[in-house]
Amino acid sequence: MTVPVKTISTYLPFCAEPKRPDFRPPEGAVDAHCHVFGPASRFPFAPERKYTPIDAPKERLFWLRDRLGFARNVIVQATCHGRDNAALVDALEASGGLARGIAVVGEDNTDAELQNLDEAGVRGVRFNFVKRLVDDTPHEVFEHIAQRVQPLGWHIVVYFEAQDLTSVAPLLDRLPGRIVVDHMGRPDVTKGVDGPEFARFVDLMERNSRIWVKVSCPERLSVAGPPYDDVVPFALRLVTQFPDRVLWGTDWPHPNMVSHMPDDGFLTDLIPRIAPTEALQHALLVANPMRLYWPEEAQS
Ligand code: 0GY
Questions:
Q1: What is the mean pLDDT of the chain?
Q2: Which CATH number is 135's domain given?
């Protein structure tokens, strides 16, 4: 299959032919963090974006899902599409119920617009604190949006980096409902899994049982590079300590990667290293994401 690469970006293209993983995900497994980008000809990128990605359309995402042995996707609105969730909605509608979404919305979105997103399969809203990706949003705005989406039963996904935990933590305590932290709160892995910085993140999860975490993105967090031995202990710690509050995702198509582009089959093969038993794998890949994204189908 040809990859729809457009050289409009300085970033690396996603891996065209990922390996078939040796690890077989359990039946019904969910890739709970991935994106669709464009195609720009149909879904233009946001004028305020901080990067222009290579097109990564829904067809290619669904092909990857099947190749890796996953059953469902959770598609997360990325900053390059701003608050225009059209590409996300298009992918959700084309998925035949096999994808749910996380949108980005603003205070000016009407209740009817939120309702339409819900009907398309959106189940949460993302608040981004990563300075290279977005301009600052006042915390009161996030709190207001969080209150407005509660009647829909949505949860909040937050993306921040470890050095921002101190400033974001009070907001996390105030936000209602469930909160999912992207990419393990982006620890600085050189500081060690037993160091004070990661301890602060683990402590946050211990104190607040409404906080879940995605054990994703070793390729972004690693200093050593593949096979990401420096990241595995962080994910393993979270999966074993909070087995019913962890999610896993590929992060395909890996926007903003400049050092190397991971093979998604290889990322899938890391799962048994971070979730070493079948019970942990089932919780991580099936039971937890089903509870959050398809609660109407989830077995308790
Ligand atoms: C990710 C990570 C990144 C980008 C975004 O919304 C985004 O643009 O999340 C990043 O550059 O770290 O989850 O895709």
A1: 94
A2: 3.20.20.140
